[in-house]
């Protein structure tokens, strides 16, 4: 029986791509990137006349591989090119036009998982007053801060330049200057995990105002309770724009001492968010728990400023709580 | 199809195994490590390779069974190491990144943690003078534990995945402790943990807040970028470099659960630069701290100078890009991305000016050999 090769793809997960062979056993087969190269790393499985090769890394689309049996070339396998939709930036946080001079973080959200290790080449901050790039404004990290699903990247403005009196701050100054306009640009060519790069430039213009050196307080946060029996959202409002990532991971909701699962939706301007429940709201007392690590745009959290002077007092609470009632209809 | 593939995989068993058969240590199992990323690696005792996995916030101890004593006489010099590794993985160099490199201090075998651009991790080992070999992480003798309970207790999204973005920045082993440092997007702070090895879930970890002096004030909110351990006058120390460039020393004995440790700043290595990797090399002529940097050459610091520097920098250094504290020597090696101890010298991954990525052993001349 002639050896037949068939490429099988899993459209959901490119890493599970496999080569399938019929009419042979796996024992003496090896796949090679080039005729003389070492065998490609992966798992060979044989069962009922079908042999599967599952490579550790995805094979390269459009490349010709070499199959050997008993170390002799038996055939060339040309992998097809699969068209993927190019990734795109769907949102940049902070989602505001005006930022404090001591802005600490930026989040870039994509519509699909992205390849890591490209942030340094793909993102630029341009000083619109001079037209020049601010080359050392954003902290370069070899281990980039990606979300588990690799679709959200966290970028830090260089904290050494933000913190007053540190050497980078004294030498290079704050990364952003009050009164100036900046353009954050995400350039095309940033590959997604499926290898297809972004094709559009995404940009956001910011106007810089004075540095924020005030601790946020949950006393100023407003909760608009939802209507009992509905799945309408709970509305949480802040007096200032807050850090999307820090606040999202700091919130917890309980009603009658039971955890309430929800989906968060940040509103434009980062001054409010909606908490959509999975099930209709029940009547009773609820608590919004906020971890003290919740931050504003300048990295000031509920207990301390980002560059707090050690002589100044800091909050000691680990958690802050806002209590509210979901009242029965007609009350 | 994925389910079919996995079913077949379990029915037939994996064909290749990366390691020879040695009785596993207590607490180890043979099977799938379920590693989702390789972000940092370091060697422990008896050929145990520790792998830090940021995606699952876990630490994996891998029994390499790679205990044959190496001679370290042969220098390792390989041009286009990334092409060589990519070929083994069946792809091109532009599709992979070398996450970390660790040399087995006993055998001299070099281990590379690499990622495909789709996020898949792989471990590759290379004995000096031989072809690289893939290590099967789905059928390996290993032990595993969570890096910290804080991450586990974090808020999760609807699929149960942590909302915190977490990245391990460096990892080292010293005398029964695996030291891990990392940063998260939740707070810009030093996350430094000490985990006892052999793993014991009941024994609590030490979670440190490391202070370093900055102009008379205490600067706490800065993560350690890279660190190593060193023994000075019989006392073990952690030598850590922060994102804001100070080089800080603190005794290992200070690492206790719940303690706030204040480090002694022994050098300011200048702004506009980020430390990438560091290691201490002991040679006949002395003990040297070698540090790779983003915008500066490899620095060599004599540990005897660190020992002799009894002060702690507290005053600002005002000249642009100026440095202060212990003396250091700039070696004629730039763009070194990774380094690890290789006998009495270091092996490096270096980006050449023509764009090539080479594996190079540093000339022993620099260590008086």
Task: Please provide a brief summary of the model.
The complex is a heterodimer of chains A (331) and B (369). Chain A is built from 4 helices and 24 strands. Chain A is mainly beta and 331 residues long.
**Major pleated sheet of chain A:** 5 strands, mixed
Structural class of chain B: mainly beta
Low-confidence stretches of chain B: 1-21, 213-220, 315-321
Give the CA-based shape of chain B.
Answer: globular
Q: What does the radius of gyration of chain B come to?
A: 21 Å
Extended strand count of chain B:
26
Distance between the termini of chain B: 57 Å
Number of helices of chain A: 4
Overall average pLDDT of chain A:
88
Order of helices and strands of chain B: HEEEEHEEEEEHEEEEEEEEEEEEHEEEEE
Helix content of chain B: under 10%
Q: What is the CATH top level name of the largest domain in chain A?
A: Mainly Beta
The dominant shape of chain A is: globular
Question: How many structural domains can be distinguished in the coordinates of chain A?
Answer: 3
Looking at how many chains there are and whether they match, the oligomeric state comes to heterodimer
Beta-strand content estimate of chain B: 35-45%
Determine the structural class of chain A based on helices, strands and strand pairing: mainly beta
* Portion in helices of chain A: under 10%
């Amino acid at each position: 029986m002639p050896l037949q090769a068939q490429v099988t793809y899993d459209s959901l997960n490119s890493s599970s791509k496999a080569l399938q062979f019929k009419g042979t056993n796996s024992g003496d087969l090896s796949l090679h990137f080039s005729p003389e190269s070492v065998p490609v790393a992966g798992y060979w499985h044989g069962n009922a006349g079908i042999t599967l090769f599952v490579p550790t890394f995805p094979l390269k689309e459009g490349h010709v591989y070499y199959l050997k049996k008993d170390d002799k070339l038996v055939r060339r396998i040309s992998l097809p090119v699969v068209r993927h939709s190019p990734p795109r930036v769907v949102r940049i946080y902070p989602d505001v036009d005006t930022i404090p001079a001591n802005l600490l973080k930026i989040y870039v959200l994509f519509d699909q998982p992205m390849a890591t290790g490209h942030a340094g080449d793909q993102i630029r901050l341009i000083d619109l007053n001079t037209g020049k790039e601010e080359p050392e404004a954003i902290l370069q990290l070899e281990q980039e801060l990606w979300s588990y699903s690799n679709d959200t990247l966290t970028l830090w403005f260089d904290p050494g330049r933000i913190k007053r009196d540190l050497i980078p701050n004294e030498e290079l100054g704050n990364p952003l200057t009050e009164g100036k306009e900046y353009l954050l640009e995400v350039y095309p060519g940033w590959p997604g995990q499926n290898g297809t790069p972004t094709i559009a430039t995404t940009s956001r213009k910011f106007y810089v105002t004075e540095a924020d050196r005030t601790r946020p307080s949950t006393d100023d946060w407003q909760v608009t309770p939802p209507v009992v029996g509905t799945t309408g959202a709970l509305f949480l409002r802040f007096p200032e724009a807050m850090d999307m990532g820090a606040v999202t991971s700091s919130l917890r909701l309980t009603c009658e001492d039971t955890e309430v699962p929800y989906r968060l939706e940040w509103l434009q301007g980062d001054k409010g968010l909606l908490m959509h429940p999975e099930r209709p709201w029940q009547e009773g007392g609820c608590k919004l728990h906020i971890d003290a690590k919740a931050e504003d745009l300048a990295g000031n959290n509920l207990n301390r400023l980002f560059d707090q002077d050690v002589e100044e007092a800091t909050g000691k609470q680990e958690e802050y709580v806002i209590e509210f009632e979901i009242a029965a209809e007609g009350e | 199809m994925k389910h079919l593939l996995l079913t077949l995989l379990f029915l037939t068993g994996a064909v290749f195994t990366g390691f020879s058969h040695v009785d596993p240590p207590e607490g180890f199992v043979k099977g799938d490590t379920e590693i989702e990323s390789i972000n940092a690696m370091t060697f422990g005792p008896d050929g145990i390779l520790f792998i830090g996995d940021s995606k699952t916030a876990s630490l994996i101890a891998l029994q390499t069974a790679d205990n044959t004593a190496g001679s370290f006489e042969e220098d390792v010099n390989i041009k286009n190491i990334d092409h060589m590794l990519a070929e083994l993985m069946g792809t091109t160099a532009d599709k992979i990144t070398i996450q970390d490199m660790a040399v087995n201090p006993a055998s001299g075998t070099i281990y590379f943690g690499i990622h495909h651009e789709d996020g898949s991790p792989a471990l590759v080992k290379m004995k000096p003078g031989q072809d690289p070999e893939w290590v099967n992480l789905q059928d390996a003798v290993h032990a595993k534990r969570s890096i910290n309970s804080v991450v586990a207790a974090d808020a999760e999204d609807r699929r149960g995945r942590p909302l915190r973005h977490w990245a391990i920045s460096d990892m080292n082993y010293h005398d029964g402790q695996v030291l891990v440092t990392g940063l998260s997007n939740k707070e810009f702070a030093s996350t430094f943990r000490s985990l006892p090895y052999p793993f014991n879930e009941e024994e609590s970890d030490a979670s440190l807040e490391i202070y370093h002096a900055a102009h008379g004030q205490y600067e706490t909110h800065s993560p350690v970028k890279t660190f190593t351990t060193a023994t000075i006058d019989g006392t073990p120390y952690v030598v850590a470099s922060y994102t804001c460039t100070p080089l800080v020393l603190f005794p290992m004995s200070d690492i206790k659960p719940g303690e706030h440790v204040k480090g002694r700043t022994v050098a300011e290595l200048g702004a506009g630069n980020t430390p990438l990797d560091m290691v201490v090399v002991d040679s006949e002529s002395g003990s040297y701290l070698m540090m790779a940097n983003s915008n500066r050459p490899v620095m060599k610091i004599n540990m005897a100078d660190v020992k002799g520097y009894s002060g702690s920098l507290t005053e600002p250094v005002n000249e642009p890009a100026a440095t202060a504290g212990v003396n250091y020597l700039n070696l004629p090696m730039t763009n070194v991305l990774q380094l690890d101890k290789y006998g009495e010298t270091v092996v490096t991954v270096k980006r050449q000016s023509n764009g090539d990525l080479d594996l190079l052993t540093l000339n022993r001349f620099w260590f008086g050999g």
